[in-house]
DNA sequence: GTCTATAATTTGATAGAC
DNA sequence: GTCTATCAAATTATAGAC
């Protein structure tokens, strides 16, 4: 089965993603991955020759999973308000419940030291998310693309910032504090 | 002179801060510092025995410099609106003009892998900034501490998030986009 | 206060056996 | 696909001369 969720490649990516959201690109080694998965580091290199390959794959999978889960923003049968709230709740689940930073926030903070291949995947993620949010906000507020894009930027900044604040203060309440005005205005 | 701004300790801290805001705690070595300052790594260890000592000192200096620059929030002769705008502009200068993340944002994202001593300094920074912002917002909106604290949280999240977005997209405009609603509502 | 020298460990990565 | 073995380089840190 090519879509086996328990094969070694998947386990490696899951483990890598876990390490990255904890401390970033430089905070783990191939041996860390190998130990966690229960294989040797040479076997990790067999699946992902270089660290850039591995982290690129993790980031690409992250984008892909968003791409699959996000509903079609032009689907008239869907309420844009519910779409945005679903997006926020998904983010909150990661930040507050799992107490992790998002992969996107973490890798973005490491951008100046990231291999080019990872930066490309990161840029693809931003493109996907900002496009989607822009389209949903355009419908929500019957607004121009420019306005929709501004609101998308605001929400994305709010979410990034909320995750930093929760991490920095250890107080999950900061997530809802940071989002409260945005929610009461648009949602 | 104990306040010499060009002594070796200061050069080391300046260099370390530059490296940290680029890639975080794990993205530089004592040799990187030594090369940039023009000494040997053993000499860096003479001034700061461990990496935890060095980064703690950098973070403590950062907090201290904020502490000195922030005006007294209870000074009735000062306009709270101007105080907040000054705070935002100072942040913007670092993010947009220097194209760096703030030291606080960067180290917070690395928090799970930070030595305890650095976490202590980071917590002290959050305490200082949130207290100051809370007091200024209480005056600005003649609000309770709870409300002031909520607005302080929102602004701080916005600023953190804006810096991530600017970094991730390479578009400085995101800073003002992310802040626009906050500005038009309170400032 | 800075240096040389070096220890002990970790890192990303490869060669080749099974 | 996983292993053992290994490499070259880098890492944090220390000892001791000047």
UniProtKB/TrEMBL annotation, chains A, B:
Residues 6-66 form the HTH tetR-type domain. It holds the Pfam family TetR_N. Keywords: DNA-binding, Repressor, Transcription, Transcription regulation. Residues 29-48 bind DNA. Signal peptide: none annotated. Gene3D superfamilies: Tetracycline Repressor, domain 2 (1.10.357.10). The keyword tRNA-binding does not apply. This is TetR/AcrR family transcriptional regulator.
């Amino acid at each position: 089965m090519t879509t086996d969720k328990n094969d070694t490649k998947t386990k490696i990516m899951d483990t890598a993603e876990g390490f990255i959201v904890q401390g970033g690109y430089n905070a783990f080694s191939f041996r860390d991955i190998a130990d966690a998965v229960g294989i040797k580091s040479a076997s990790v290199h067999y699946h992902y020759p270089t660290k850039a390959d591995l982290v690129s794959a993790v980031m690409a999978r992250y984008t892909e999973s968003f791409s699959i889960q996000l509903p079609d923003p032009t689907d008239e049968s869907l309420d844009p308000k519910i779409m945005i709230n679903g997006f926020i709740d998904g983010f909150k689940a990661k930040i507050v419940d799992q107490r992790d930073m998002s992969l996107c926030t973490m890798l973005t903070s490491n951008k100046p030291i990231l291999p080019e291949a990872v930066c490309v995947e990161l840029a693809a993620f931003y493109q996907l998310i900002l496009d989607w949010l822009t389209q949903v906000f355009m419908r929500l507020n019957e607004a121009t693309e420019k306005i929709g894009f501004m609101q998308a930027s605001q929400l994305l900044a709010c979410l990034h910032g909320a995750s930093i604040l929760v991490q920095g203060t250890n107080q999950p309440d900061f997530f809802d504090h940071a989002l409260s005005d945005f929610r009461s205005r648009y949602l």
